[in-house]
Amino acid sequence: MAQQAEEKSEYRYAPDKCGFELTLPEAPYTVKKCEKDNGKDCYTLSTFTQVYSMNTSLRMDITCSPISKTIAQRYTDDIMKQTLEAMTDKSLIKIGETFSRSTDRYKQATLLGEGLQGRTPTLFMAQLWIDESSAFAVKAEIVGEALTEADTVFSEILRSIKPIDLTEENDQAAADAEE
To answer: What structural domains does the chain harbor?
Structure first.
C-alpha cells in the first residue's frame, strides 16, 4: 500500500503484496504494462522523473511483482546478476561492478554502470531485491552534468530501499482496525 508521509513532502512507495519499499520525493507515475496483447503477463511500472535545470535529469523505473517461494529460491547470485544485465541497455551503458548479498530474509544485487546518451554522460544503477514472495526491481539513471542536488536525491532514494517490516505493518493494521 502506497501512502503519503506526513512530516515531509515524501512519498512512501510500498505496493500491496510487496516485501520492499522506498521513499521518493513525490508520487511516481504508475502504469500497468502487459508483455502480450492478451492481458496476461502484466505488471505495474512506476516511474519517478526529476529534471534539474536543463542539463541534468534523474529517472527511476520501479516494479514489484509477486513470486512463489520456489521461484525465489531459483534466484542465485548468477541469476540475479544476469537479470540486472538484462535490464541494462548495453549500447548506452558500460557495465561496471555488480554486487550481491543475502540475509535470512532477502537477497539483493546491484549493478553499476556508466555511459553516454549522445554526448551526455550517464550514471546507471540497477537493483534487484528478492524475498520469498516478491521481486522488487529498480532501474535508476542520472543523465547530464554532475549536479550535487541530483546526486543527493539519487543516493537518498536508493538508500531508502529496504524490506518492509511486516510486524510493524501488521501491528499498524491491527491498531487501525481497533479505532
So the answer is: 3-165 (3.40.1000.10)
